[in-house]
Amino acid sequence: MDSLIKLFASLLLFFLSSLLLAGEINGVESSHHHHHHLYGPKKLFVFGDSYADTGNIKNKSQATSWKVPYGITFPRKPSGRFSDGRVSTDFLARLLRIKTPITYLFKDYAGKKRLQYGMNFAYGGTGVFNTQSTSPNMTIQIDFFEQLLGNVYSQSDLSSSLALVSVSGNDYSNYLSQNGSIAALPAFIKQVVYQTEVNLRRIHALGVKKIAVPSLQPLGCLPRYASTSFQGCNETFNALVQYHNSLLEQVVAKLNNETKQTAFAIFDYYNAFFTVFKNKGENPGSRRFETPLKPCCEGSCANVDEKGVKMYTLCDDPTSAFFWDGLHPTQEGWKSVYSVLGKNLTASLIKR
Ligand SMILES: *[C@@H]1O[C@H](CO)[C@@H](O)[C@H](O)[C@H]1NC(C)=O
Ligand SMILES: *[C@@H]1O[C@H](CO)[C@@H](O)[C@H](O)[C@H]1NC(C)=O
Ligand SMILES: *[C@@H]1O[C@H](CO)[C@@H](O)[C@H](O)[C@H]1NC(C)=O
Ligand SMILES: *[C@@H]1O[C@H](CO)[C@@H](O)[C@H](O)[C@H]1NC(C)=O
Ligand SMILES: *[C@@H]1O[C@H](CO)[C@@H](O)[C@H](O)[C@H]1NC(C)=O
Ligand SMILES: *[C@@H]1O[C@H](CO)[C@@H](O)[C@H](O)[C@H]1NC(C)=O
């Protein structure tokens, strides 16, 4: 996929942007660099699932993301995010130096100023296919976006826009819960990646200039699927994830070739997760994430029994854990992933 020229261009752009990013990566808010704007995207449109949802699910009794202890780190109360705090969307917005885009749910309460950062259409629990009856699949999410074009967002608004397309595995957990056959999974993986391709094409055709699609994270390492003592990942699962990712890479290469521009970029969550597990944090030698596969919130997180007794236990310090619950990273986990990805992301996003 990478020609030498593209590689050289991205190295050059990375060099140009590394100064700007240095403050971000070290977590230092540097006002000195604040007003330098490279020609990076200034609007973020988000599609997908709980890895990117920042509060779209309306019925609060239906989602753990709206229940204690979700959100205890940020904003210190449940906010509809599936984490103790910020999620991928927040860290990507931060990297772009824009505010977290408003949720589709709150669009009617947002002023014009707030709408300028884009919009988040992601719903926890959803997939590219129907995985549940209560929230819209990605096709419907893109319909929502399309309906706003021409009134809320003009084509020129989209000229500096980025889409994040989060497909984190709900199609697979739903498939396995319905049919349970690992043997038939490869054929289904093809369908999921094909439908993802359809969605990517459509978002691009609607006018979004840059489209980022994360590689599938190592599902076999999620606490729910890892070994019982959280010591190791399920390699059967991860082999299937690698198959998904290899198909996705082919799709992105094909789309970039067809569009004659590098409009599509893969955010390599798969390798970034492993890098963070290995380093126990964003930097090698850190003491965080001592047992990286052990979640902070263990058990049936956010649920209480008939007597009101918690059906889960909470770790002392959520910043010490990579995973928040059985499926989702903590804020600190996401921060580390985006810190590892940071340099590459900026290079691929400002490339045009
Ligand atoms: C919200 O979800 C709960 C639990 O699934 C359900 O009983 C209730 O009817 C839902 N409320 C609305 C307004 O859909
Ligand atoms: C998405 O949901 C709609 C409404 O349920 C359905 O008609 C459509 O077939 C779904 N799309 C896919 C790709 O499954
Ligand atoms: C489950 O298997 C049946 C029969 O093979 C098939 O028709 C159905 O589509 C499968 N369900 C899913 C979610 O793939
Ligand atoms: C890995 O996951 C598969 C699918 O759920 C399961 O059949 C298998 O037993 C798991 N392997 C281990 C070592 O846990
Ligand atoms: C791009 O597509 C053309 C045909 O349209 C093909 O000849 C070429 O090999 C493709 N390049 C890559 C890198 O896939
Ligand atoms: C960053 O990009 C380089 C070159 O494309 C690649 O080899 C490396 O795996 C990427 N790292 C991450 C974390 O994505």
UniProtKB/TrEMBL annotation:
One of its GO terms (biological process) is lipid catabolic process. Transmembrane segments: none annotated. Residues 1-22 form the signal peptide. InterPro entries: GDSL, SGNH_hydro_sf, SGNH_plant_lipase-like. Keywords: Hydrolase, Lipid degradation, Lipid metabolism, Signal. One of its GO terms (molecular function) is hydrolase activity, acting on ester bonds. Belongs to the 'GDSL' lipolytic enzyme family. This is GDSL esterase/lipase At5g03610-like. It comes from Arabis alpina. The lineage of its organism: Eukaryota, Viridiplantae, Streptophyta, Embryophyta, Tracheophyta.
